[in-house]
Specification:
- This protein has 134 residues and is mainly beta.
- The strands form four sheets. It has a four-stranded mixed beta sheet, with helices on one face. The chain has a two-stranded antiparallel sheet with strand order 1-4. A two-stranded antiparallel ribbon has the order 2-3.
- The longest helix has 8 residues.
- 7% of the residues are buried.
Length: 134
Amino acid sequence: MEYIEPNEIESINVVKKDTTINGVLFRGLINITSKNPKKYDLISLEQIKSEFTKIKSNDVIYMVNRAFITDNIETFKLDRNYILKVEVTNSEEFYNLREGNTKFDIINILGKTKENLENKNKILLRGHEAIGVK
């Protein structure tokens, strides 16, 4: 629900019965109807990986707004228009993982949240100021 703009929701319907989707049993469903369903262009995490990165390996950990996606990776979808930026980090970039045998990539998908949009417009300056002495 955190990836859906509340003002875009027409209705929410809760179905309290067991439902199986792709072999996974769910104890209920939440059906969300959008005010404008044609507005959304839903894509899978695999599509995001192939369209926004150069990663070919299947050894991937997905994150959305710095939160790990641990369940339903095959059925998890995001609106393409929600994506602000896709960042890729390789496990070798972590000091304590460099020596390990398992190599993987982390794909962090940043959405167009208020916080991410504010941080996108910030400029961080780093440097060293030298003061001349005569």
